[in-house]
């Protein structure tokens, strides 16, 4: 319990004791101040986590600023439409293509979007003419003449049908010995299986291109009279992948090494029935050719149970070039191990941290914050980069050096002259950017290196023909 002194008692106490007492109270006050400051920092971090958690759960996954001059980053909207897709996509103000076309023999056939839409489709002509009796009844005997046909076109859809191919293979034997021979015939796609190339293509297209679950494909095939289970389809997909697609995957892996710029990323996935408890976190690693600076794109997926360095170390072994990634330390470790490998950073990951910081600030004070100023600087970098899309690699590099490099220099010069607390969100964003400076500058040295890793992040949305492999 604290001791209380009266004024009279204090007047009689020795001076050295008073000094000692004052110093002791000063130390206690400093300790309390530090404890209070630490508690405030913890409370601030908790509040930031709560705010960002609510934003991630209920808000839109957009990083656009309210500024209308904001450059539009390529992104996938978090609010996916399911039940009201027709209402969301429709535009009743769009005019319907004309289905009736009248023309005389002297008029040339009109060309436009409708003709482009119909080109390449087979045409089944269906005639609709009046009989001689009907014409005489309408116009009288020989009282009519034939005009150019009115042509009406409609799409005709033929639902899928299932047939059984019954191959009768001639078998021949010698009359003098046991020698036998069979006539040439197509080899089975999978030994001992009823699956055909056409059926396998339908299953793979439905499951991996159109994202239709196998149980729905099972129901769809049943409506066609085909009794195959989802287990059969799953088995076929696995066997076909092992016997055919794995060969193509390995070939594309070798081809990927011929690109001097590639991109990589990894994302968590939940997997069941892999020898671990249900819901265990695994990782899907994606490797692809560099952004859109090549005409022939390669996108490869590799499933792994962990996120450790051994997986990209094996995949990138012997690669001589530049790999664009996020700030995951594993890639930086590999750069030190593999002499030929250069790692380039992603400006979207840098920008995201400042965007999260901005969301923690009241809107009325956002424009006064350092996070807003840094976001605007990154915005300016992207705006200038967006003007270079149509240039050649060499011209893009020249423009980056002349126009964008000064903006990047100014960005990092500002970062190095501000004082922040590394324990809050803004301090984390600044620290991340400074730690990644070496990698974030790589795109300034090569015109084929993209400014960010978005193409890898959204590879699944923009490139439906993906090949995956499980280790």
UniProtKB/TrEMBL annotation:
<dbReference type="InterPro" id="IPR052344">
    <property type="entry name" value="Transposase-related"/>
</dbReference>
<protein>
    <submittedName>
        <fullName>IS66 family transposase</fullName>
    </submittedName>
</protein>
<dbReference type="InterPro" id="IPR004291">
    <property type="entry name" value="Transposase_IS66_central"/>
</dbReference>
<feature type="domain" description="Transposase IS66 central">
    <location>
        <begin position="193"/>
        <end position="455"/>
    </location>
</feature>
<keyword id="KW-0175">Coiled coil</keyword>
<dbReference type="Pfam" id="PF13007">
    <property type="entry name" value="LZ_Tnp_IS66"/>
</dbReference>
<feature type="coiled-coil region">
    <location>
        <begin position="22"/>
        <end position="49"/>
    </location>
</feature>
<dbReference type="Pfam" id="PF03050">
    <property type="entry name" value="DDE_Tnp_IS66"/>
</dbReference>
<dbReference type="InterPro" id="IPR024463">
    <property type="entry name" value="Transposase_TnpC_homeodom"/>
</dbReference>
<feature type="domain" description="Transposase TnpC homeodomain">
    <location>
        <begin position="46"/>
        <end position="123"/>
    </location>
</feature>
<feature type="region of interest" description="Disordered">
    <location>
        <begin position="94"/>
        <end position="117"/>
    </location>
</feature>
């Amino acid at each position: 319990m604290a001791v209380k002194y009266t004024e009279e008692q204090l007047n009689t106490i020795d001076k050295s004791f008073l000094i000692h007492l004052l110093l002791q109270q000063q130390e206690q006050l400093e300790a309390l101040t530090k404890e209070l400051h630490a508690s405030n920092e913890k409370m601030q971090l908790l509040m930031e986590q709560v705010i960002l958690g609510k934003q991630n759960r209920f808000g839109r996954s957009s990083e656009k600023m309210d500024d209308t001059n904001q450059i539009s980053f390529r992104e996938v909207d978090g609010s996916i439409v399911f039940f009201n897709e027709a209402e969301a996509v429709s535009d009743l103000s769009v005019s319907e293509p004309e289905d009736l076309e009248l023309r005389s023999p002297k008029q040339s056939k009109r060309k436009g979007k409708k003709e482009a839409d119909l080109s390449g489709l087979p045409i089944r002509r269906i005639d609709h003419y009046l009989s001689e009796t009907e014409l005489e009844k309408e116009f009288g005997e020989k009282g009519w003449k034939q005009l150019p046909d009115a042509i009406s076109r409609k799409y005709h859809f033929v639902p899928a049908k299932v047939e059984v191919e019954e191959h009768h293979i001639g078998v021949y034997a010698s009359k003098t010995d046991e020698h036998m021979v069979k006539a040439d015939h197509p080899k089975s796609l999978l030994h001992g299986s009823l699956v055909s190339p056409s059926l396998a293509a339908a299953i793979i297209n439905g499951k991996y291109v159109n994202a239709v679950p196998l149980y729905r494909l099972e129901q769809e095939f049943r409506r066609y009279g085909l009794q195959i289970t989802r287990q059969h389809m799953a088995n076929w997909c696995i066997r076909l992948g092992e016997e055919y697609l794995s060969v193509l995957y390995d070939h594309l892996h070798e081809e990927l090494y011929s690109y001097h710029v590639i991109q990589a990323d990894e994302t968590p996935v939940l997997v069941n029935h892999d020898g671990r408890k249900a819901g265990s976190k695994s990782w899907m690693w994606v490797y692809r050719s560099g952004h859109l600076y090549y005409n022939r794109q390669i996108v490869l997926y590799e499933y792994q149970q962990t996120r450790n360095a051994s997986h990209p170390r094996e995949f990138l072994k012997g690669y001589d070039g530049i790999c664009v990634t996020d700030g995951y330390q594993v890639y930086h470790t590999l750069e030190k191990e593999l002499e030929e490998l250069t790692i380039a950073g992603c400006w979207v990951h840098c920008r995201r941290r400042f965007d999260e910081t901005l969301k923690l600030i009241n809107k009325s004070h956002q424009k006064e914050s350092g996070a807003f100023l840094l976001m605007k600087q990154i915005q300016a970098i992207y705006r200038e980069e967006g003007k270079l899309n149509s240039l050649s690699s060499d011209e893009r590099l020249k423009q980056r050096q002349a126009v964008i490099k000064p903006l990047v220099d100014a960005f990092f010069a500002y970062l190095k002259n501000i004082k922040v607390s590394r324990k809050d969100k803004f301090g984390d964003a600044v620290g991340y950017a400074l730690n990644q400076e070496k990698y974030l500058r790589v795109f300034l040295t090569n015109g084929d290196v993209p400014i960010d890793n978005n193409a890898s992040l959204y590879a699944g949305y923009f490139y439906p023909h993906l090949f995956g492999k499980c280790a």
